[in-house]
């Protein structure tokens, strides 16, 4: 569904600026504080699980006392003088030897099949000479993004994201395999589509082939003189919530909803992109997740307070931030540090109730609990917004994640009807 207000119209210079953010986390993170602190030294360790072909990767934080703290999406523990973490991502890992041989015969390199065989099951690699690079539109530490033409598909314009694997590092390949698995599971008009994979046989690189989108929400909002109308806001919110509902109903948490990850084409179609921090989740699973996700300005209070058991509510909080941003034209809670971010949240949304503090038992609650409670000021702060928009923000930006509801419920709100 495109925006009812019509096609997006911008100058060529503006288009160059907005498209540079496409599918490029490293570039977009220059605008917002990064999720992971640069003050800690990180390394990666991996090992096969005994009796299983699956792998799971953890981040090993090296401490001053030479101990190590292990972090990944489903495990956090303390290991003294440990170098190996045995962990497991569901549905990932190697494939049976017979299938591995078939994948290698089909053109996949052995170093990729050994780690990501499950992620590429049933797919054939695209030949690199079937694409013509037109322009480099993004550059990050480990990836580059190109605008390209698919020579085998009526010269369709696509985006090629090249990911480099230094020394064929299996840990890096493993994280990319999870992103590929997630993208393959999703199929929705408001979720970016992975159209194929290209393996470079001259270097340890993988190209992800995506549909090409001309803009992103942050770039459009930053254009001089641009102010989204109420019909535009409604249109974008409907598409964002529709895409999110599809992700959540398929067991996927995005965990990095923000304007630069919401791509928009010239017809007003919005697609959720960049699933690098996304994770599979199960309502019935009790395994802990990492709290070090979601870009700071869009991170919900429970993650800032150290929660490791959470669900779809984290994406809904970020969506509430996006709704406010669509009307104001700028981020509504731009904190510089985690402490400042929590302060901004409490000033706008009020501090948690005593009952919430007591029941949640969040790790950082004793450190960040304010001495005096904050009153909720969201309604008066955004009193010039349409009443329906404020009502939806009141729900999505609830301090208690249990009150935020679901994307499906938000789609039924007055804003989207």
TrEMBL record:
Which SMART domains does UniProt cross-reference here? S_TKc
Residues reported in the UniProt entry to bind ATP: 161
Task: Identify the Pfam families for this entry.
Answer: Pkinase
Protein kinase domain: residues covered:
131-417
InterPro entries given in the database record:
CDK (IPR050108), Kinase-like_dom_sf (IPR011009), Prot_kinase_dom (IPR000719), Protein_kinase_ATP_BS (IPR017441), Ser/Thr_kinase_AS (IPR008271)
Annotated region Disordered: where? 12-34
Q: Which UniProt keywords apply?
A: ATP-binding, Kinase, Nucleotide-binding, Serine/threonine-protein kinase, Transferase
The protein's superkingdom reads Eukaryota
**Any one Gene Ontology molecular-function term assigned to this protein's record:** ATP binding
The answer to whether keyword Kinase applies is: yes
Family statement drawn from the similarity comment of this UniProt entry? Belongs to the protein kinase superfamily. CMGC Ser/Thr protein kinase family. CDC2/CDKX subfamily.
Question: What is the protein name for this chain?
Answer: Protein kinase domain-containing protein
